[in-house]
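Lecture 7 notes: from sequence to structure.

We start with a single chain of 186 residues. Read the sequence below before looking at the structure.
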Amino acid sequence: MTKVAALGPRGSFSEKAARKHFKRSENLGIVYAKSFSEIFDLVETGKANYGVVPLEDSNEGDICQPEDTLVLLKDSTLYMVGEEYLNVNHNLFGKGSENDIKVIATHPKILSHCKDFIKNYFPDVQKMAVQSSAEGARLASEDPSYGAIGDKRLAEIYGLNILRREVHDKGQQVTRFAVVGKKENL
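Now the structure, written as tokens:
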């Protein structure tokens, strides 16, 4: 089995990039991590064969919130053994309606990508930075006062309603992910 560490919980963009990159692997297991540094630890300790971490996006450059993955890579014993590009669309979802939302929870980078949308349509809601868009969706699945922003498949995974589609402020966004491993070649 090929074990790949990705930011969790289930449904994150990191997991989507991992599944895309390793789509030919017949026996793929995703190991969910709570942080980018944990992804590196899982690979370095052999609990995962590879890890997938975001490096940069086409709108704002480096993914440096909450952890700088380039610094983690530089400070680790791992190699960048591949890369994956993922078209990213942000959607707003929740358990109830837009009127129920008091908090929008998602990854800090996504909050930045959607800041004008949030300011224009949800000026009075609390913005909560969490480890991943999937974590925001998980929170929204447990509390109807939470909204989340992320990939549309999170709505399916967590039983949420898609309230608005494509809520990012700029056009199509592409995120570049690094595949890290212990060997120089994949």
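Helices lie at 13-21, 36-44, 69-75, 108-113, 115-121, 133-142, 153-158. Keep this in mind for problem set 3.
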